[in-house]
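Handoff note, outgoing to incoming analyst
You'll be picking up this chain. Sequence as last confirmed:
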Amino acid sequence: MTQHPVRFEAYPTDRFIEIVKTWIDRPWPITSKDGRIIFEDLGYSVDSEDPEMFASPFAEREPDSYYIVRNGFIDDIDVAVSTVCTGDSIQENADVIERTYDTYCKAISDAYPEALSKKDRTRNAVEWSFKNDAQIRLSNIGITISFIIHSPRMTQLRREEEEMGLTSYDEILEDD
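Most recent structure output, in case you need it:
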C-alpha cells in the first residue's frame, strides 16, 4: 500500500505558474511526442510501462500525471502539482490546501489578466478559458489540488455538448 506524506506539499506559486504557461502558451494541437517532451522538461518522469503516464516530484511509487491522446494529439492533461493527503492528514492539512488553492487561483488570474475568461464552477473549482481555446480547471478536492488542461479541440467539444444539452458539466464537475 502506498504511503502518503503527513504534510501537504505543493509547488511554489512561481513554479506552478511556469507549469501553467508551459502548457497554455504553446501552439496547439500538441502531439503525444511533444507532450512527453514537455512533461520531461518540467521534471516529470515517464512511466516505463505506459508512456502517457508521468511521475511528478510528489509521486511516491506510481505515476500521478497523464495525458489522453486521440488521433495522435493530446486532448486532456492531468498534471500533479501537489501531494495527496489521506487519513488524519486530510484534516490537519485542510487550511494549507485551501490557502494554496486560493494562491494558485489568484496567480493564474494575475498571469493572464486579459487573455482569459473565468468561470467559477463551485466554491472549490474554477475554470479559465484562454484566447487560444485551451481551458484549465483548478480544484481543491480536499485531499490535493487538481490541475486539468483541456485542449482547444476538447474545449470546443465540451461547449458544443453543453449547447446541445447532451450533458451538464456543471453537475458532473461538482462531484470532482
